[in-house]
Amino acid sequence: MTAAYLEEAVSMMDAAFFRHETVSRCLGLPNDTAALAELKQLTTAAAKDGVSVIAIDKTTNKVIGAAFNKLQVKDDTAFTNFVNSWKQKRAKAIVKFMAEVDSLYNFFDKCGVDCLLEFMFVGILPEYRKKGVAKKLCEASIEIGKDLARGVNVKRSVDGRKLGLEPVPKIITAIFSCEATKVIGKKLGFKVVVEEKFEEYEFEGRNFASVVGDEISTFTLEYRDLK
């Protein structure tokens, strides 16, 4: 991710992620333009960590996919405080969902780390799916994490700030909410630490299972070492 492509990549995520992703649909995000606008703040903030990745169609120079990755540091509340300033309930709800799932397995304590790299949102434009783009984005993200863990500063600033090597992630984590991403996680050596049923979650009285139907029954919380 570079400054030149940031705005296009952030805008692309509406069509590539939030309008199709399972939890987003369960929360009614696709039809909530105000919430989607607030979520652009979130993807932009994640990109500022310098560890996000984009995929570009070389024939058109068009951004067709992105992995917005976030460096999470133990006991750092800045990100939570940022989200608490939002006004849109559906935008807040997806972040609350991610936080609740993350709380089911405290990676910092259980893995003995003080920093991790999180696949926050990985999205591909519909017309470019099933071509291996998502897997390539995930592989590139893992390589960024490995380089940082080895002491090689490969962070890319998107706002002109100088990004130091620290904080350095030791593991990479993800919530996989569809079968395709679960398959990618398995191929890339991720370990499942939590598996939850969609039917155990609801928003505004609507159970998630009523939205996903037979499409998928569970989502997973997974991680892998950056060695």
UniProtKB/TrEMBL annotation:
Query: Do you know which Gene3D superfamilies this protein is assigned to?
Result: 3.40.630.30
Q: Name one GO molecular function term.
A: N-acetyltransferase activity
> What name is this protein filed under?
N-acetyltransferase domain-containing protein
